[in-house]
Specification:
two-stranded antiparallel sheet, 8-stranded parallel beta barrel, alpha/beta, about 20% strand, 10 strands, TIM Barrel
Amino acid sequence: MSKAYRLSKIFRPETGNTLILPVDHGVSAGNIQGLENPHKTLEELNIPDVDAVLMSDGFAKQAESVFYGRNTPGRIQAADVVYMGNNKIYHELNTSIETAVRRGYDCLKFIMFWDRPAEEQMQSVQVISKAIQEAEKWDMPVLVEPLTFDHIEDEEERIKVLSDSARVAYELGADILKLPHPGNIDTIKTWVNTFNVPIILLGGAFKGEVANLVDQVDEAVSAGVKGVAIGRNLWQRPIEEAKHMLSELARVIHKL
């Protein structure tokens, strides 16, 4: 199976854009509010509007019915785990690339915190670079999510950390970059023009009413972003509001 085919399961071929629904929070956050029963959450939401679901392998095994048959969402596996202990981040792979291929995933996702000491940066580089090299043998796309572990008040400093980490992920061979909204559209345009891979925004940074959030996504897509991955800001809302929000996001992402 080619990498291009797998990417077509993530990005809608008609538009080249994507709406990703993350439900992989349990491994890092435990029994998080709004996702106590992720299978039920997927069944209740308007899944036809979702192009891909980001999840852990354990959940995927219990939600096969959601992905059975034609025209179902692509599947992105959260392939690593990051924990903090003794003021230090521990970053490890939690799957083998061969197992992910055998289970039929379309993409693998890795986190990369960059506002950390060099030792921890190097650990993440080693985890991600080795995974990308192995994934290339199987034509498996890799999505990397550069992040800051701590909240950085100074916007210029925060953007520099995110831009540096995005550059590192790009140089390591990431096929997709998933980044927080930097707070201004000019930085988004710079990222789009700098990195020759699809950029999607994660939804945690989007706040407020549905209409305001949809307008922010519309602006970002018009600037060249290829979509969003939105989880907590979606499924922590009342179900009918969440369904409406999915439909509105699909409308602006795919210019329906």
